[in-house]
Each structure stands twice: as C-alpha cells, then as structure tokens.
Write a structure and sequence with these properties.
The chain is α/β, with parallel strands linked by helices and 181 residues long. The chain has a domain at 46-166: 3-Layer(aba) Sandwich (Glutaredoxin). Helices cover 46% and strands 17% of the residues. It has five helices and seven strands, in the order ααβαβαβββαββ. The strands form two sheets. Strands 2-1-4-5-6 form a five-stranded mixed sheet. Helix 1 packs across helix 3 (73-89). The longest helix is centred in the first third of the chain and has 48 residues, at 2-49. The radius of gyration is 24 Å and the shape is elongated.
Length: 181
C-alpha cells in the first residue's frame, strides 16, 4: 500500500515537472520569437515599407533599390543591416524593395539584369545608376556608397560577392499540356 502511494506521488511529481518544463519552453519561445524570426519578419515587411519605384525615380532623391526574396538566406542575413540603413537614411533617400517572386516587378528585374540576390542598386537624385551590389556585402562598403550619392562625379561601380542566391524560376504560373488534365 505504501509503495503504491509513493508511486502515485512520484508520478504526480513527474507530471508536474513535465508541465513546468513545457510551460517554460513555450514562454521562452514567445519572448524570443522576435530574436529568432526577426530577419524573416523584416523581409516580409520590406514590400510594405517600400516606396513605389515610379515615384522613387522621379522625386529628385537618391534611391536605394533592393531585389530580394523571402526564401533567400543571404537576404535574411542582410535584412537587419538594410533595415538599419532605411531607419538612418529614409528622410534623404528613397528605399525601394522589390521581391523577385512578384511578377509585377519583372520589367525591373530585366532592366537591371538581376540574376543573383540580394542585389542592391544605388541611384543618384537624377536616377543615374551609381553602384550595384550583388550578394552579401560589408556594411561599411554600402555605407560609403550611400554617403557618396551626393557627390557630383561618381564612376559606376559593381561589387559582386560570392555569397548570393541565384533567382529560382517561378513555375507557379507555367502551363503545360498535362496541367489541364
């Protein structure tokens, strides 16, 4: 009888400990979700925070144009850095974010020969392309280029880093003879 009582107490204690551990894990995930998912959240918000490209190229302000995709790991890595640039410079510079998976930006993807992402193009206030960055970039290099946008004479510069994602072909809207089965 005494051993059954001890087993019940032990079983109750184990259940209590298990419930406490599960509760701690859930609470930790709730409080740390921003830390773990911040880059993904930032990428999803870029499209909403973007200046329309037609406005950006005609309002006499320099433009920061980034081509990205939500699945792009390098884009996720750079998202906090790009967000910090936006927060710092958005009064003086247009920030345009174009998701390469959105078909409505196809003409811009072709116009600026985007074949790797992230791709950042910097334009002066007259709409002249000044710099192109492809792949993961050093914050200092991008900051220098942003700060040089106001200079009168600027040679075009293209900087490609090996850490970039190639654009995946969007087959969602592709039609084949078998797709109408």
């Amino acid at each position: 009888m005494q051993s059954e009582s001890r087993e019940q107490i032990l079983e109750t204690n184990l259940k209590t400990i298990l419930v406490l551990i599960i509760a701690i894990v859930i609470i930790s995930l709730i409080f740390l979700k921003n830390f773990f998912f911040k880059s993904t959240y930032l990428l999803k918000s870029f499209g909403e925070l973007s200046v329309d490209p037609e406005i950006a190229f005609t309002n006499n302000k320099p433009t920061f144009l980034e081509f990205y995709a939500e699945w792009c790991e390098v884009c996720k890595e750079m998202a906090p850095q790009v967000s910090a640039f936006k927060d710092e410079y958005e009064k003086d510079i247009n920030f345009v974010f174009l998701n390469v998976d959105n078909q409505k930006w196809g003409n811009y993807i072709q116009k600026f020969a985007v074949n790797g992402i992230p791709q950042v193009n910097l334009f002066d206030k007259k709409g002249n392309l000044i710099s192109t960055f492809i792949g993961k970039q050093d914050e200092i290099k991008i900051r220098e280029s942003i700060n040089n946008l106001e200079r009168e004479e600027k040679p075009y510069e293209e900087i490609i880093n090996a850490g970039f994602s190639t654009i995946q072909e969007n087959k969602n809207n592709e039609i084949s003879p078998r797709s109408h089965g």
